[in-house]
C-alpha cells in the first residue's frame, strides 16, 4: 500500500453502524405513532426487506420513493398489521429525519480515522441520500476527517457504476492506482472499485466466504496492518 495517497470509505455498514442506529430510530418512530408491534419482530422482517429494496435501487429497478414506501408496506404486510398509506408515508418521513440523530459507529472508527488522517487523504463514496448522509457524518463527528464526500444523488449513478468512482477520484484529485476503496459490499464497493483500477479492501463484518484475490478484514482495527 506504499503508493496509496487517497482512501475512500463506504459509510453505512462500514463506519456508521446502520443496523444499530436504524433500530433506535424505529423504536422512537413506532412508539411516537402508537404502532403496536414488537421492535424485534418488526426488524426481523424489515431488515432483509430493506436490503432487498436497496439492491433493487442500486440496479435502478425501483425509485427512491418506492424504496422508502415499499420496505415499510411489505414489512407491515408480513406482520399482518393494517396500516394506511398515509401512516406509512408519515412513518417513512419521520424515520428519515430520526435516522441521523442516532450515531453509533463501528468499534475502532475514530481511532482508525485519527491514525490514517495525517498520512492519507480520506473520502466517502456512498449510495445513500445526500441530506441523510450529511447528517450522519456531521452528527457522528466524523465529517471532519473527510476531504470529499461523493454520493449517488450528485454523481447521478450508484456504486458499482464506474462513473461514481471516477467522479469521486476526480473530485479528490486522485489516481486509480494511488486510491483504495474500503466497504462492506463485494459487488458495489470492492468489484466496483477494482473495475476502475482502484485497490480495494472488503470489510467482512459477518465473515462470509471471500473470493480468491480479495483482501478482507473483519474488524476496522485490522486496517492498520495495511497502512
TrEMBL record:
CDD domains: HAD_Neu5Ac-Pase_like (cd04305). Coiled coil: none annotated. Signal peptide: none annotated. One of its GO terms (molecular function) is 5'-nucleotidase activity. It holds the Pfam family HAD_2. InterPro entries: HAD-like_sf, HAD-SF_hydro_IA, HAD-SF_hydro_IA_YjjG/PynA, HAD_2, HAD_sf, PGP-like_dom2, Pyrimidine_5'-ntase_YjjG. NCBIfam families: HAD-SF-IA-v1, YjjG_YfnB. PANTHER family: PTHR47478, PYRIMIDINE 5'-NUCLEOTIDASE YJJG. This is Noncanonical pyrimidine nucleotidase, YjjG family.
Amino acid at each position: 500500500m506504499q503508493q496509496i495517497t487517497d482512501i475512500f470509505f463506504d459509510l453505512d455498514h462500514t463506519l456508521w453502524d446502520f443496523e444499530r442506529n436504524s433500530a433506535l430510530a424505529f423504536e422512537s418512530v413506532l412508539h411516537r405513532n402508537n404502532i403496536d408491534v414488537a421492535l424485534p419482530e418488526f426488524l426481523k422482517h424489515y431488515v432483509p426487506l430493506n436490503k432487498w429494496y436497496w439492491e433493487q435501487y442500486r440496479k435502478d429497478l425501483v425509485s427512491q420513493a418506492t424504496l422508502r414506501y415499499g420496505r415499510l408496506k411489505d414489512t407491515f404486510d408480513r406482520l399482518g398489521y393494517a396500516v394506511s398509506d398515509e401512516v406509512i408515508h408519515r412513518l417513512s418521513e419521520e424515520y428519515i429525519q430520526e435516522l441521523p440523530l442516532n450515531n453509533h459507529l463501528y468499534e475502532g472508527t475514530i481511532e482508525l480515522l485519527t491514525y490514517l488522517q495525517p498520512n492519507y487523504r480520506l473520502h466517502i463514496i456512498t449510495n445513500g441520500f445526500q441530506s441523510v448522509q450529511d447528517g450522519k457524518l456531521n452528527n457522528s463527528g466524523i465529517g471532519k476527517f473527510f476531504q470529499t464526500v461523493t454520493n449517488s444523488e450528485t454523481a447521478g449513478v450508484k456504486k458499482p457504476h464506474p462513473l461514481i468512482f471516477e467522479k469521486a477520484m476526480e473530485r479528490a484529485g486522485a489516481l486509480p492506482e494511488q486510491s483504495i476503496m474500503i466497504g462492506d459490499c463485494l459487488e458495489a464497493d470492492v468489484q466496483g472499485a477494482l473495475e476502475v483500477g482502484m485497490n480495494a479492501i472488503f470489510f467482512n463484518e459477518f465473515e462470509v466466504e471471500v473470493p480468491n484475490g480479495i483482501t478482507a478484514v473483519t474488524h476496522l482495527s485490522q486496517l492498520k496492518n495495511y497502512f
